[in-house]
Design brief:
This protein is an alpha+beta fold. It has helices spanning about 15-20, 20-25, 35-45, 85-90, 120-135, 160-165, 175-180, and strands at about 5-10, 50-55, 60-70, 105-110, 140-145, 185-190, 200-210, 235.
Length: about 240
Amino acid sequence: MSEILILNTHPERADECAALQPLCYPTLAADEQVTPAQFIRHVHVFPLGQFMAVDRQTDRVVGTTAGFLTHYDRISPDYFRHHTFYEATGGNWLTNHNPSGNYYYGIDMCVHPDYRGQGIARKLHDARKALARRLGLKGQVLGGMLPGYAKYTHVMSVHDYAHHVQKGVIHDSTFTTQLRNGFEFRGLLQNYLKDPPTNGWSTLLEWPNPGYIETTVNRGTPKPVTQSILPRIAAWPL
């Protein structure tokens, strides 16, 4: 089994990162898939919040996750009623990044199809959780795709589908993984993404940081994840 390293995304590997997008999100509108230029922009805006999974043996990028900081008073469907991915992310350019934000907003979780089932998504999630703890964030928030719902749109409502996934009756490759990684279901978002097979439905999810303490003290800026500290923070042989 390959040894996978989780590193902060390197701008020179933006093309490799972007190449995963159509493989992971084949039904998502092209303008909502992250481009090489946008990956480079992410690293420029918030280098700590961008991660890539690299196969150590082949030096191949096999996974990515991206995000930015933002501030929310609460995570609820009513509060996010007119919320869309494109607007929240500034069209994937992270123009809404707030260095003083209290939440990490996850915009991407991508693993190459050939490498799925090896725990890479879990390790990317762990890297984001570690960052949230280091920064003293209240937690993470995201709008999650429901790829499995495409097969059920004509037989059940999206609300029933989400309920069945939560109960473990139906397995959804994205939603189920997020629940297993500690995300809590807060509701559903309509027209959050341009994903025709699922009629644009997405989940609103929150990962509450169990170590969060309300404070006005400046969190400071920790160092990016580098090879020298990987064994302690974000390098997992799989």
